[in-house]
């Protein structure tokens, strides 16, 4: 009897959390599908019958709508700067900090700061008392630390059997689990920011313990590369830089500004102006990466294009497999435990990688001019356009897939009463 009562109370907490998913930016879909943007309700109403693609485009913010164009421009601009600007590559690679250039370190930290400011840390203690969160943690750990590294290992050997240096770099990217940019893609695709942040933090902590033995196992034991030397301090430092600094800044910014401005003004006045800094920093990071590596890319086109193949296959296979699997689980068990937002979280955490850590380790272990370092650098060059495209694909497919075990509703917008219906 007591066990039944405890289970019932746990379910009630999960339902209460589900009803409270009205964040600063999104309003949840009553059928568990793609959430609506609060600033785009009028657009969504007016475009209900004008086609899903047009409705999707109009429901995005202007920066999100133009992000793909901005990224293409940033890539081209980076290559042009790297090739034709005098001493640009040397200046961008200056100020080496733990194997990564200082301009890139600054950009990565600035990119994560607004995203981690938007996480509702005040709700995390309550979330830990629900099965919903623990189910997501268990699912994510199994995918990220058991399935994903072996998928990348298989693809690297299948596509690069005669390029051991590039193959090792790809494997090093595969075992470095998501830390930074996954939260950018999660935001664009309107995933659950809170759960995504928790999974990123857990994966980051696990990397302190697991990255070194995983690298030794996959590279030295399975692949036969005896040159690999790793230290836990190197891995811990990299994770601390790219997660610890922006995480601390995000927590401090959120609670200090909420106390200074109040919750409503913080959500409506501060966040809308602060959040775009993340995507602006993303464009800056892309320019720096392409400018720094433009010479290597243009003068090693054959190996570079071959290295792109396993990375593209990995991102697409992992994302599609997990997105479809969660949609099946959602249709069977309901939106309360799964739903579109969690499909986005799980798919992008599975497909994303901590390329900063992989680059830092490859540069420190094999040298900045090594094939391994170049291959690890190709990782973000491929990840950015592919996962951006998958973010848009998630928004599009999310409108047509079934996300609840009951019959999907046809209403386009949730009312306050429908938010409270389970």
Describe the protein in words.
This protein is mainly alpha-helical and 422 residues long. The chain has a domain at 2-68 and 131-230 and 293-416: Na+/H+ antiporter like fold. It is 73% helix and 1% strand. The chain has helices spanning 2-19, 41-46, 52-59, 62-65, 67-84, 88-92, 102-117, 124-127, 131-159, 164-174, 182-188, 193-222, 232-261, 263-274, 276-299, 301-333, 340-351, 355-366, 371-397, 416-419, and strands spanning 26-27, 36-37. Strands 1-2 form a two-stranded antiparallel sheet. Helix 7 crosses helix 13 (232-261) and helix 12 packs parallel to helix 17. The longest helix is centred in the C-terminal third of the chain and has 33 residues, at 301-333. The model is unreliable at 13-24, 39-53 and 409-422 (pLDDT under 50).
- Report the helical percentage: over 70%
Average pLDDT works out at 76
Q: Which oligomeric state applies?
A: single chain
| Major pleated sheet | 2 strands, antiparallel
Rg (C-alpha, Å): 22 Å
The sequence of SSEs as H and E is: HEEHHHHHHHHHHHHHHHHHHH
State the CATH architecture of the domain at 2-68 and 131-230 and 293-416. Up-down Bundle
- The CATH class designation of the domain at 2-68 and 131-230 and 293-416 is Mainly Alpha
| Largest sheet, spatial ordering of strands | 1-2
Shape: globular
Low confidence ranges: 13-24, 39-53, 409-422
Number of discrete helical segments: 20
CA-CA gap between termini = 25 Å
CATH domain fold name of the domain at 2-68 and 131-230 and 293-416: Na+/H+ antiporter like fold
């Amino acid at each position: 009897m007591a066990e039944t009562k405890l289970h019932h109370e746990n379910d009630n907490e999960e339902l209460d959390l589900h009803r409270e998913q009205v964040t600063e930016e999104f309003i949840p879909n009553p059928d568990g599908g793609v959430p609506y943007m609060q600033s785009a309700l009028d657009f969504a109403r007016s475009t209900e019958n004008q086609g899903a693609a047009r409705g999707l485009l109009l429901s995005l913010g202007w920066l999100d709508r133009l992000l793909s164009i901005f990224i293409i421009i940033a890539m081209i601009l980076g290559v042009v700067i790297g090739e034709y600007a005098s001493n640009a590559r040397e200046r961008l690679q200056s100020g080496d900090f733990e194997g990564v250039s200082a301009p890139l370190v600054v950009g990565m930290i600035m990119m994560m700061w607004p995203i981690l400011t938007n996480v509702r840390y005040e709700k995390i203690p309550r979330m830990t008392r629900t099965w919903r969160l623990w189910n997501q943690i268990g699912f994510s750990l199994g995918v990220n630390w058991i399935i994903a590294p072996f998928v990348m290992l298989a693809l690297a050997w299948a596509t690069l059997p005669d390029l051991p240096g590039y193959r090792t770099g790809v494997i090093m990217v595969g075992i470095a689990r998501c830390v930074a940019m996954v939260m950018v893609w999660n935001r664009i695709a309107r995933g659950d920011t809170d759960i995504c942040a928790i999974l990123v933090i857990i994966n980051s902590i696990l990397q302190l313990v697991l990255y070194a033995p995983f690298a030794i196992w996959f590279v030295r034991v399975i692949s036969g590369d005896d040159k690999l030397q790793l230290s836990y301090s190197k891995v811990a430092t990299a994770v601390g830089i790219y997660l610890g600094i922006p995480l601390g800044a995000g927590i401090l910014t959120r609670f200090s500004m909420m106390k200074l401005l109040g919750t409503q003004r913080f959500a409506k006045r501060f966040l809308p102006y602060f959040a775009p800094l993340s995507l602006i920093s993303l464009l800056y990071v892309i320019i720096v990466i392409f400018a720094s590596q433009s010479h290597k890319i243009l003068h090693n086109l054959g190996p570079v294009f071959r290295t792109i193949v396993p990375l593209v296959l990995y991102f697409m296979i992992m994302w599609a497999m997990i997105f479809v699997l969660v949609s099946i689980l959602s249709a069977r068990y309901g939106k309360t435990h799964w739903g579109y937002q969690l499909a986005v979280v799980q798919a992008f955490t599975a497909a994303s990688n901590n390329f900063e850590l992989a680059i830092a380790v490859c540069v420190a272990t094999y040298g900045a001019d090594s094939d391994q370092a170049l291959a690890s650098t190709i990782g973000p060059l491929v990840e950015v356009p592919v996962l951006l495209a998958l973010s848009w694909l998630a928004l599009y497919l999310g409108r047509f897939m079934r996300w609840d075990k009951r019959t999907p509703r046809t209403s386009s917008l949730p009312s306050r009463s429908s938010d409270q219906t389970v």
